[in-house]
Amino acid sequence: MNIYLLQAINGIGIGMLYFLLAVGLSIVFGLLRFVNFAHGAFYLLGAYFCYQMTRWGLSFWLALAVVPLVVGALGWLTEKLVLRHVYASPHEFHILVTVGLALAVQELVILQWGPLGDSVPVPDLLQGVVMWGGIVYPKYRLFVIGFTAVLALILWYVLEGTRLGSAVRAGSESTEMVSLLGLNVFRIFSLVFALGAATAAIAGVLAAPMRGAEPFMGIEALGVAFIVVVVGGMGSFFGALIGGLLIGVVQSVMSTVWPEGARLMIYIAMAAVLLLRPHGLLGRKG
């Protein structure tokens, strides 16, 4: 029984990382109606920038503070210089541009760091395990659960208790409404896109000590993020949270019950949700 409880706790940690990955994608879609296939590239950059900083002898904690700011700034520049000019284009063009950006980032990573993965050490403070009854659990994974829970609360406050959050919620209903209120719509777009890139980078930094950094992790992350967003509902903050936790727990528990089919069960869970709720658990029609 302990093994399933352990895997459920492990799934919560993985699910919170999935939430960080998906929430930016979901918010960007809710405001801009723009599906960003380059989102996984920010996760990839987060992991590799963390790896590079630890390779320079800098601390993991400094990487956790600095890397999301750097990647968020790159996301802001990407939106301002490239994506802003294609919003009015057909969705097929959105896909071509963002997929091209993702592939370009992936190839640049391979040129800089090589095609093979690299490991990132767990910070000294979080090495070892915690023993609780008959359960032994790594300290680092407990930190990931706690840290991402605090981040989720901060993001919730930003979206629910600040002027930016009010503008994002209003924009998810009608961007014209935001313009009529006298707000700079394009500035809000840039800030939201930067926030999405930064949260994906945080997920990359946190994932690096658990799985290392490798050039193709962005593609995998993008696939999982889309599954979480579809399950939770496009444009929903709490949908991304619930969807991330659901997918994380299903994947983790099934890796014990049926290791070969753990990833398959993610898609089965998504199909089951869509059969019952075609717009996702907390999604809205239209």
UniProtKB/TrEMBL annotation:
Segments passing through the bilayer: 12-35, 56-78, 140-159, 185-209, 221-250, 262-282
Subcellular location: Cell membrane
GO MF annotation: an example: transmembrane transporter activity
Key words, A-Z: Amino-acid transport, Cell membrane, Membrane, Transmembrane, Transmembrane helix, Transport
Coiled coil residues, start to end: none
Highest taxon of source: Bacteria
Membrane topology term: Multi-pass membrane protein
Pfam families (alphabetical): BPD_transp_2
CDD domains: TM_PBP1_LivH_like
UniProt KW Translocase keyword: no
GO cellular component, one term: plasma membrane
GO BP term, example: amino acid transport
Similarity-based family: Belongs to the binding-protein-dependent transport system permease family. LivHM subfamily.
Name of the protein this chain belongs to: Branched-chain amino acid transport system permease protein
The organism of origin for this protein: Acidovorax soli
